[in-house]
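Slide 14.
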Amino acid sequence: MRDSINKLWPFLKPVRKKQILFLFILMIISSIFEVVSIGSVVPFLGILLSPEQVLNNDIAGPILSYFNLVSSDELINVFSSLFIIAALISGFSRFMLLFLQKRIGHGIGSDLSHDVFRKTLYQPYKTFLDMNSSELIAGISTKISVVTGSVLIPTLQLISSIFVITSILLILLILDPYLSIFTFLTFGLIYSSILFLTRKQIKNNSKKISTSSENLIKVIQESLGGIRDILIDGTQDQYCRIYKKYDSPLRKSKANTEIISGMPKFFIETLGIVLIAIVALNFSKTENGLIDAIPVLGALAIGAQRLLPVIQQVYASITMIKGENDSFNDIINLLNQPLPSYLFNQNQNLNFKDNIEFKDLSFKYDDSSEWIFNNLNFKIRKGSRIGLVGTTGSGKSTFLDLCMGLLFPNKGSILVDDVQINSENFRSWQSNLSHVPQSIFLSDASLTENIAFGVPSEKVDIEKVKRAAKQAQVYDLIESLPAKFNTRVGERGIKFSGGQRQRIGIARALYKDSDFIIFDEATSALDNETEIKVMDSINSLDRNITFLLVAHRLSSLKGCDIIIEIQQGEIKLIENNQIK
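Slide 15: predicted structure.
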């Protein structure tokens, strides 16, 4: 528990730390009310059984007379009212404690979820190349909920329970120290033994829950992403079997953890009843029988009724925390992701005025892979139209990622007007460019929102949206729709054809008014007539805008000033007269 708190504490907001400290204060207050509530049982039952004896007591009598409590009925009525008030306050304090534990716990869960999501989105592009997206999705969605429900809130409940147990034990020790010590040691030994015997099972369950959650999300992603092929090939049963393969161990591990956490409750409750029966039997053999024993038995019974569930909660909390330890550590790793330095140093302003230079550039993805580019030298002048061709696997996509500051060279440099692009200024460089990929991502929003992608709705310039749509040859299509620019595109743009989605993507790039626009085979899904119109429109744009067009056919690059081909990590110029 202490290890979990130490790992999590640095990631909590200051306001959450204050709330937790306030929660600790409330735990202490609630524990005091528990002592008052249980401790008042003995005098209350004593007064009910023999009010005259209390009135005639040498110590209590004068005090009661001072408050004008001289009759049995008055004494019973007053102490009954005080007992009820103490019970109500104790119950209310426990409810408030539960209320705040849940609200603060889930509030912290929301903070952590946002923090993990934010840090993940700000990671370098290479991080996403090396990591499976199912791990990220499981961490952001599933495991954060697990951490909140099975680690964070149980930890708060565990601390609260320790306060309550301590306060109840104090009052029980005053009433009957030997019986209280024997009972607590017996219960503690039972719970400790079960924890010791089940520790390996809990650890295995923790690993299975963590890995199965990731695999389950991976199966869902892959099956929904390839639903067309699944429907055509009729492989639904295969994916259902894979789903069950990961889902069953996940559910079984969770069930095992829950069984282990709830198992001792039934034994302990039975043992508690037996102990109370033994105490009552012993008291019945004394001189005054059960008359003197009833107040003590009542306090012990209420104390046990409060104590047993709390001890069970301590055990269940420890079991749940251990059972989700792997998922908790996964979240801590995601929280430990560093934020990029440019977020804290945004003074660098990299404007594109003259040229982009690739100088002695060499790149490979990792030490075990081969060089994709080796000592590459090339210049792109502002306002030029550059065509780029190359066979599959030649390095076109890597070249574009280097251009866009998504990857950095292992050797050499990329210079924008003699200023090297690096980890400190690449965001400033990226503000100058737009990218139109071959596969256009469209969110399930309106066409206006997709063209002005990422711009807050209140800041969208609708006239600029329409101008970009006209330049991308998609304006007439949009105007023919019933809702026009307010038409929703559906999930991943499913309501539009591939060519229509690409034109929307081109309009998105043109909306940004960038100095440098990269088209990564962005016209490949267009028919010849539409492609010619789009390319004519692009070529007619301001000559201060630089275009880098990647195409799988040379005919798409007729309007380019320079056409280059990537071959075995080197750049080769292609003359325009070679294009047919």
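Speaker note: The first strand starts at residue 355 and ends at 363.
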